[in-house]
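Morning. Coffee machine broken again, so started the prediction first thing and wrote up yesterday's gels while waiting. Chain of 63 residues, entered below exactly as on the submission form.
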Amino acid sequence: MKQKPDGKNGVLTTEYRNGSFFRGIVIEPVSGTSEPRYANGRLMFDVAIAPGKHGTLVSTLQP
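Came back before lunch.
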């Protein structure tokens, strides 16, 4: 498995290859109330939500 984080815009590409078999996914945060960051093979988001408020995160997943 190979992961390619793009720290500039928070896109994480994960690929798996075994012989001729290949599978991958691209995760791209589109909008949200916090900035994405890459750590330990994951996209992470710091969340601070005031009482009575809500947060949002919109992402696209591309196979």
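Residues 11 and 33 are 16 Å apart (CA to CA). Going to sketch it on the whiteboard this afternoon.
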